[in-house]
Design goal:
The protein is an alpha+beta fold. Helix content is about 20%, strand content about 35%. The chain folds into three domains: about 55 residues; about 240 residues, Thrombin, subunit H (Beta Barrel); about 90 residues, Pdz3 Domain (Roll), CATH 2.30.42.10.
C-alpha cells in the first residue's frame, strides 16, 4: 500500500510488521505529522487568499517576486480599496434623483374638482447643470405630472422634454441651481467581471438612494422588444422596482449604463418590464439585471434635448411577414407583404403599392421586419436605398428616398 501526502511516499510493504512493530509505529506517526502539517499549510494559504480577495487585492508569486494586483481602481489616490464602494456612492449619489409620477384624478370622494393621483416612481440621473435629467421612458409613460426629488431634500416639478419608447429613454428638465451632474463613462471599455454599482430609489422614496453592488455579468445581451433586438449590459447588482432610470456606475464613479429591467420568476409584466421579458420565465432567476449602455444612450439623449423626439429613417410602409408555408400555399416569394403605403412618403414617390412583396433591400435578402429595421438603422434620413419587390409575377427594383419618422 502507498500513501502520497505531497511531500514523500510511504510504502507499507517495505516494512515487516512482525520484526519491526516499533518502526511501523514511528513511520505511521511521522506520516500523520506530515499530513497534519500539509493540512495546516493549505488552510493558511486559503485564509490568506480569502483575506486578500475580500480586500479587492490578489497576491501571487511570480519568479520569486511577490506582486500585488489591484482588481478595482479606487476613487482616491491613497489605494484604500476598503472604502471603494463607499467613495463611489458618495461621489455619485448627489447626481441621482427620485421621480414620482401622477395621473389626472378626481376630487376627494369623487365629488368633482381636479387633482392628481400618484401613479408610480422611479429614478433618474442629472446630466448637466441646466437641469436635464435622463430616466426610462416606462417611468414617465402616461404621466400627467412629474416631480423630481433631489438627494438634498429639494423637490421640483419636472417638464418632459422628450422620450423614445424604442430605446426606453426619456429626458426631463427642472429649474434648479447647485446641481451635481454625473460623469458619463465609456461603456465600450467594459469587461465582464469588473465592479458595477447601482444607485436608485428602490421601492420609492422610502428607500431613496439605495446602493447595491455586483459585477458586469455580460455584455451585448440582445433581448427582444416590440421594436426588435435591444443591446443591454447584464449585471448581478440588485435592481428593484424604483431603480429604473438610475445609474449603473463603474469603479471610478462613471455612469456606464442606465438601469432598465430585470428578469425574475414572478411574471408581472406591468412592473419595470418594458420589453415584455417576464412571461416566458418558468424557473427562479437571481441577479439578472440589465442596463442601457451609456454609449448607445448618449446620442438618443442629445437628440431628445434638441428635438424632443428621435428621428429615424423610414420607407413609409406597413408590412406583414410571409412565412415559407404561406409562400408555398399561395405560390408567392418569402418576404415582406406591403399592407399599406403612407401618402407622400418615399415609398409613395417611388411607386410602391399595397400588395407588393419586398424580397431584398440594398441587394440584401429580407424575410423579417427585424432584418428590414437593421438595414434602415444603418442609414440616415434623406438616404436613397434600393428596394426589390415582387409584383404579379414580376421582379422590380426601385430607389426609395428615406423620410423621417418624426418621433414615431
Amino acid at each position: 500500500m502507498e500513501f502520497n501526502n505531497g511531500f514523500e511516499n510511504y510504502r507499507l510493504s517495505d516494512v515487516n510488521p512482525k520484526n519491526d512493530k516499533k518502526s511501523l509505529g514511528k513511520m505511521v506517526k511521522r506520516y500523520r505529522r506530515k499530513m497534519f502539517m500539509s493540512f495546516v499549510a493549505i488552510a493558511l494559504v486559503a485564509a490568506l487568499a480569502g483575506g486578500a480577495l475580500g480586500a479587492g487585492i490578489v497576491k501571487y508569486v511570480d519568479t520569486g517576486n511577490t506582486q500585488v494586483v489591484n482588481r478595482y481602481l479606487p476613487l482616491s489616490s491613497d489605494n484604500n480599496n476598503f472604502n471603494l464602494i463607499t467613495n463611489i456612492v458618495k461621489a455619485v449619489s448627489p447626481s441621482v434623483v427620485g421621480i414620482d409620477t401622477y395621473i389626472n384624478g378626481y376630487g376627494a370622494y369623487g365629488y368633482g374638482g381636479n387633482s392628481y393621483v400618484e401613479e408610480g416612481s422611479g429614478s433618474g440621473i442629472i446630466i448637466d447643470s441646466e437641469g436635464h435629467i435622463v430616466t426610462n421612458d416606462h417611468v414617465v409613460e402616461g404621466a400627467s405630472k412629474i416631480t423630481v426629488n433631489l438627494s438634498d431634500g429639494r423637490k421640483f416639478p419636472a417638464q418632459l422634454i422628450g422620450k423614445d419608447s424604442r430605446t426606453d429613454l426619456a429626458v426631463l428638465k427642472i429649474n434648479a441651481t447647485n446641481l451635481t451632474p454625473a460623469k458619463l463613462g465609456d461603456s465600450s471599455k467594459l469587461e465582464v467581471g469588473e465592479l458595477a454599482v447601482a444607485i436608485g430609489n428602490s421601492l420609492g422614496d422610502s428607500f431613496a438612494g439605495t446602493a447595491t453592488a455586483g459585477i458586469i455579468s455580460g455584455l451585448n445581451r440582445n433581448l427582444q422588444s416590440d421594436y426588435g433586438p435591444v443591446n443591454l449590459i447584464q449585471t448581478d447588482a440588485a435592481i428593484n422596482p424604483g431603480n429604473s432610470g438610475g445609474p449603473l456606475v463603474n469603479s471610478i464613479g462613471e455612469v456606464i449604463g442606465i438601469t432598465s429591467i430585470k428578469l425574475t420568476s414572478t411574471g408581472d409584466s406591468s412592473s419595470g418590464d418594458p420589453f415584455g421579458l417576464f412571461q416566458s420565465q418558468s424557473v427562479p432567476l437571481e441577479g439578472m439585471g440589465f442596463a442601457i449602455p451609456i454609449n448607445e444612450a448618449k446620442p438618443i439623449i442629445e437628440e431628445l434635448i434638441q428635438k424632443g423626439y428621435v428621428e429615424r429613417p423610414v420607407i413609409g410602409i406597413s408590412v406583414q411577414q410571409i412565412t415559407r408555408q404561406q409562400a408555398n400555399q399561395y405560390n408567392i416569394p418569402v418576404g415582406l407583404y406591403i399592407a399599406q403605403v403612407q401618402q407622400g412618403s418615399g415609398a409613395d414617390a417611388a411607386g410602391l403599392q399595397a400588395g407588393d412583396i419586398i424580397t431584398a433591400v440594398d441587394r440584401t435578402n429580407v424575410t423579417t421586419f427585424n432584418q428590414l429595421e437593421n438595414i434602415l438603422n444603418k442609414h440616415n434620413v434623406g438616404d436613397v436605398i434600393s428596394v426589390t419587390i415582387w409584383r404579379n409575377g414580376q421582379t422590380l427594383t426601385v430607389n426609395v428616398k428615406l423620410s423621417g419618422s418624426n418621433g414615431q
